[in-house]
Amino acid sequence: MQWSDEGIILATRRHGESSLILELMTRGHGRHLGLVRGGRSRRQQPTLQAGNTVSVTWRARLDEHLGNYAAEPVAERASALMARATGIYGMQMLGTLLRLLPERDPHPALYDALGAILDALDSPVEAGELLVRYELAVLNELGFGLDLAACAATGTNDDLAYVSPRTGRAVSRSAGEPYAARLLSLPAFLTRRALTPNANDLRDAFALTGYFFDRHVHEPRGIEPSPARERLLAIIGASG
Question: What structural domains and CATH numbers belong to the chain?
Answer without folding.
Answer: 2-76 (2.40.50.140), 84-148+186-239 (no CATH)
